[in-house]
Structure to design on (251 residues):
């Protein structure tokens, strides 16, 4: 049985797609996608040899060596252009994820890819910004909790009219606040435009935990008397105030 996190990703992959799972580790996701009959074939990409071996073993044990190509390499470099319809990347930071996608874009490996299902562990805003910059539209977002950790899953589709559609997705009126536009946009990228439209307990919990973390940092910083610390503390306070403001305006 797949973990709730990987299941949330699997559920968003369009049936029938040829999928590449990048940073696949044990290849649990592609094995599940094929065994459940959702997709016909997959590529499991891995940078490191340990996880790559684990992926080969898992694939062989499942009897899927003919259907899952396990390849060692950096990001999308393991793919041929046009080889897959969908790409999943999960369990790494948003900044690394955006770097992988950007190099893939630069080298033409994203051409023909219709769908991305991404689960950044941190830095979701970096991924959302990359998507907008490169012509992808968020189709939906999910948030879930597993083993005491909160995860977000971003599902994006490629679209010719992405620029226009993204204006609707990142509609600033989602946050009815007397806050400057660029700050509002910043919070839409950080908290998630769909998650903010239908705020659930978990989204609130995630940002309340963030507030607690910031309060701990603020307290630490406040122990020092230096002018830099005063400045830093003021910036943290401002950040905390904005989070509280956003949370307070949610329906
Ligand atoms: N995707 C699986 C999941 O979500 O359960 C595994 C996540 S694991 C924490 C992250 C994996 O990404 C590691 O196995 C690591 O070797 C791999 N990785 C890191 N950088 C990578 C890159 N540039 N290209 C391919 N794989 C990478």
């Amino acid at each position: 049985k797949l973990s709730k996190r990987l299941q949330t990703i699997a559920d968003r992959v369009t049936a029938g797609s040829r999928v590449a799972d990048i940073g696949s580790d044990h290849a649990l996701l592609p094995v599940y996608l094929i065994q459940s009959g959702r997709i016909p074939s997959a590529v499991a990409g891995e940078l490191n040899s340990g996880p790559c071996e684990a992926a080969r073993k898992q694939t062989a044990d499942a009897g899927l060596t003919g259907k899952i190509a396990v390849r060692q390499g950096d990001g999308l470099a393991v793919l041929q252009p046009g080889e897959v319809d969908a790409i999943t990347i999960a369990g790494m930071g948003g900044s690394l994820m955006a770097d992988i996608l950007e190099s893939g874009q630069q080298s033409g490996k994203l051409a023909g890819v219709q769908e991305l299902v991404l689960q950044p562990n941190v830095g979701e805003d970096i991924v959302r910004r990359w998507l907008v910059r490169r012509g992808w539209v968020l189709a939906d977002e999910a948030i879930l909790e597993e083993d005491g950790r909160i995860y977000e899953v971003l599902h994006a589709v490629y679209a010719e009219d992405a620029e226009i559609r993204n204006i609707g997705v990142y509609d600033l009126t989602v946050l009815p606040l007397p806050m400057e536009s660029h700050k509002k946009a910043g919070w839409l990228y950080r908290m998630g435009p769909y998650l903010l439209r239908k705020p659930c307990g978990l989204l609130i919990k995630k940002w309340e935990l963030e507030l607690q973390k910031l309060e701990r940092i603020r307290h630490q910083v406040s122990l020092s008397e230096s002018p830099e610390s005063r400045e830093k503390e003021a910036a943290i306070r401002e950040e905390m105030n904005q989070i509280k403001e956003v949370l307070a305006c949610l329906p």
About this structure: The longest strand covers residues 136-146. The two ends are 35 Å apart (CA to CA). The pocket of S-adenosylmethionine is lined by residues 22-25, 45-48, 51, 74-75, 90-92, 96, 100 (CB under 6 Å). Residues 4-159 form a domain with the Rossmann fold fold (CATH 3.40.50.150).
